[in-house]
Amino acid sequence: MPRRIAREVRVGDVRLGGGAPVVVQSMTTADTRDPEATLKQIAELAAAGCEVVRVAIPHADALDGFAAVCAGSSLPVVADVHFDHRLAIEAIARGAAKVRINPGNIGAWERVDAIVDAAGSAGIPLRIGVNAGSLAPEFHDRDWPLEDKLVASAVAFCEHIARRGFEDLVVSAKASSVVATVRAYRRLADELPYPLHLGITEAGTAFAGTIKSSIGLGILLEQGIGDTIRVSLTADPVEEVAVAWEILAALDLRRRSPELVSCPTCGRCEVDLIAIATEVERRLKSLDAPLKVAVMGCVVNGPGEARDADVGVAAGRGVGLIFRHGEPVRKVDEEQIVEALFDEIDRVLGSGGRVEQKPRSHSSP
Asked: Domain 259-351 - what CATH class?
């Protein structure tokens, strides 16, 4: 799909904008003062497919831990700073690959200018991260629609910083309202040239937050808007990464793991399809190839979906017809379906087939 091409910004060795693939981010929840715990969480996020990680610096006593995290992290580390501009400057000195500041609480322009000067000297970008819940009073108190407030705050900061000759900027304008967030990003895509960091903030727990994030981010990404995404969940951040990749895969933007196609079942189904699909899904999690696997329960759509997949099964009464690369290869009893599918998956992966291993570099599609 056509994409908005933003100015390119580099966060460590990761490209944002400039036509680069949409980048997946998350944020640690460990105490930054405990670098060992934070690095352990970063390793888990990286294994799940996270490409940039954000770390909070709530107080000055977290700076030593932050420095250790930057030194030991396999991912570029973004410093998340609110209220105290001196923390942002110190984070830059201690190895941050990017700094996120909040226009609603970072303070007067001279403080912003000091951060900009430090980032410019270090050659790192800044994210102007506007949140509906922490708008500055001059925007919060206006009788405007929420999206207007978000956009006005972001644009004011970007214009001020650009006048200082600094344009290595990434911009976000998040709200818990999907509608307000989508409207704000559409306008920012037209008004600013910088990469956009998408997210629905305070989206909720794993279930509700996944739905809200999928709708909001999905709308924008389908319209070509967005250069990096963070799915905000009240859950283990590894779940944020999993949801982010599913959103990108559903839109055919990026894929790093197998796709399972399975039918919702109905009265025509004559096998225990839910149990079969659940077990196939569980075992697919160990694979890192963008493979398409279809698990279908009857003859209505089953053969068609199975033929369209790399590997698939169309079930009948107590049996399953196994397909590989669109061709039927054998019929097996119900209790053998899962093993038969994975035998064929092994053959596909072993022979090359239509499956390519997931991209390893940050710039690969």
From this structure: alpha beta
